[in-house]
Amino acid sequence: MSDRVILHCDCNAFFASVETLIDPTLANVPMAVAGDPENRHGIILAKNELAKRFGVATAETIREAKEKCPGLVLVPPHHELYAEISRRVNAVYLTYTDLVDPFGIDESFLDLTGSMHLFPGKTPRDVADEIRGRVRREIGITISVGVSFCRAFAKLGSDYKKPDATTVMDREHYKELAYPLPVSDLLFAGRRTTAALRALGVLTIGDLAAADRLTLTRELGEAGDTLWRYANGLDNEPVRSYYERQKPKSVGNGMTFKRDIVGEEEIRAGVMALADQVAARLRRQGVLCTVLHVQIKNPDFRVVGKQQKLSAPTRLRQELVETAMALIKALYGFGNAIRTLTLTASGLVDEDGTGEQLSLFTPGEAEKSRRQAHVEETMETIRDRFGDGSIRLGYWRDTGIGVGGHKREPTKKNEKDT
Predict the structure, then answer these.
(1) What distance in Å separates the CA atoms of residue 309 and residue 38, rounded to the nearest whole number?
(2) Is there a common fold for 180-232 and 247-406?
(3) d(CA 320, CA 309)
(4) Does 248 sit behind a cis peptide bond, omega within 30 degrees of 0 on the bond before it?
(5) For the packed helices 264-285 and 363-386, what is the interaxial angle rounded to 10 degrees?
(6) Is pTM beyond 0.85 here?
(7) Domain-by-domain residue ranges, the chain?
(8) Parallel, antiparallel, or unpaired: how do β-strands 166-169 and 143-148 relate?
(9) 134 three-state secondary structure
(10) Is 14 helix (H, G, I), strand (E, B) or coil?
(11) Which CATH architecture has domain 1-179?
């Protein structure tokens, strides 16, 4: 049986690239998408290549980014547009195979094993290059593509060279390309795992491949065995069909800050950014949540968490923010530094099947909730058309942060040390 043909397609500087579609002049200046351009405690959500050259980093504060790059141009995020561009990019992928498995809003795995016969005379690299060209021409952004026989090395390939590049890690060449790379580059090798591997003398992917499998399993548990298999090219995880994706059981977003945040104002800014994205994802999926979980990692990497069952299903940003702030106050307090913050909405219910739960509201509360939902949806429509700074909720003005600019996008799905 011939090798699988797995692609990992990653949109380059996705948020920044989409913002450049709105305003092409942004392509010529160092630019970042920021939570609140008017607030020095706002957070950098994404940056373009020019800003990256100055050392601007995702999840650091605007103040820190401006110190590195005084001429940095800041723009607010437009999440509904990001979601629409993501759908259009995946629509291109779907013309090559139905086995398209999104791995977040800006990247997807593709399995071309069963469809390569549709492209006679073309190699997997040829098809990858064709896909890159189509996305560039038809949508106006660039992607990097990794081509391999498994997901782990395909992902490694898309990260190997950016932007707008194809890297092949096949059976003949994957060792010379992958093995010199730091082990932290491997899929799911987070900061804590990397530190544990370093203590075992495992610094590169090659070191990991040559390490004793039983020792890794004993020291790191299942994660150690999984990473050993990845490093040795034994990743057999399938790529799911785009049309057979299961509904999620939870919706969560986490952010590892470049500088620890402390104090109610900074913590609220982080909570608002996360809650805004969680609410947007709940809205796109047509569901509401009944439970909210907060997880905090302190500067010493100690993790604590707490969850609360909501009085009624919701997807309102305002309710998620206030519930999260109450949980953080009770669990951790505002005077302690936070390195990583994660909000997870669970107990999901369809928006059309919540009549019984909504009856828990008093008539006045139900009307207030409906008004708030209408306000948030209207605000989102206005922001998507005119920019996030075009309208703000008076409720937030008292915080000194302002919802109009702070939102929205936190880190990737698997908190891989962003």
Answers:
(1) 34
(2) no
(3) 11
(4) no
(5) 90
(6) no
(7) 1-179, 180-232, 247-406
(8) parallel
(9) helix
(10) helix
(11) 2-Layer Sandwich (3.30)
Q: Which superfamily is assigned to 247-406 in CATH?
A: DNA polymerase, Y-family, little finger domain (3.30.1490.100)
Tell me if 169 sits within 8 A of 148, measured CB to CB. yes
The residues carrying an active-site annotation are 107
The residue with tokens 């579609």 is: 21
Distance CA 77, CA 14 (A): 11
The 10 Å CB-count burial string (b at 16+, else e) for 262-298 is eeeebbbbbbbbbbbbbbbbbbeeebbbbbbbbbbbe
pLDDT for the residue 370: 59
Distance CA 78, CA 65 (A): 20
Q: How far apart are CA 209 and CA 326, in angstroms?
A: 45
- In this structure, the strands spanning 303-314 and 287-297 are antiparallel
- For residue 162 the two structure tokens come to 């950016």
Question: What CA–CA distance (Å, rounded) separates 109 from 93?
Answer: 9
Q: Which of 235, 203, 200, 204 is nearest to 214 (CA)?
A: 200
Q: DSSP for 41-93, please give it.
A: T-BEEEE-HHHHHTT--TTSBHHHHHHH-TT-EEE---HHHHHHHHHHHHHHH
* Bridge pairing between strands 287-297 and 349-350: antiparallel
Distance CA 379, CA 94 (A): 33
- The model's pLDDT over 102-117, given as tens digits with 9 standing for 90+, comes to 998 999 999 999 999 9
At the topology level, CATH places domain 180-232 in DNA polymerase; domain 1 (1.10.150)
The 10s digit of each residue's pLDDT in 359-411 is 334 455 555 555 656 556 665 555 455 444 444 443 333 333 333 333 333 33
Q: Which DSSP string do the residues of 143-203 spell out, in sequence order?
A: EEEEEESSHHHHHHHHHHS-SS-EEEE-TTTHHHHHTTSBGGGSTT--HHHHHHHHHTT--
CB 38 within 8 A of CB 20: no
